[in-house]
Amino acid sequence: MSDDNPKSVPAGVVLEASKGMLQKQLFAIFTSPTDGMGPIFANMEEHLNFQVSLEAEGVLYAAGPLWTDDGSEWEGEGMVIVRASSPEAAAEIANRDPMHKAGARTFRVRPWLINEGSVTIRLDNSTQTFKID
């Protein structure tokens, strides 16, 4: 391996290279089933209520299931993006999830830096409806 083609670089190098961008630090919690779909569905209602409570607190950025690569099935995996002060704080949030407390899923936390992208919100006053793209 040559020095001009490293396998990784310090986070500071990326921060410097993208210093004019958003650089919003969030944390991705990747969840995986431990014993099939039965325990997942047994804990689904409490899990979703927990997610909604995180949303109400302003902690939850986004969450949802991860489909199989071809998009045809769900094997119980999910991703939860949270606002937290550190990976440890994100793990504390994940540990409170009824899905994890029950042992239906395990998780891992990865820091995620948002630099690029956009969100479009259309609000139609006359019909009092909105659309998020």
UniProtKB/TrEMBL annotation:
Family that this chain belongs to: Belongs to the YciI family.
Record protein name field: YCII-related domain-containing protein
InterPro entries attached to this UniProt entry: Dimeric_a/b-barrel, YCII
Pfam family name, one: YCII
UniProt domain YCII-related: residue ranges: 42-112
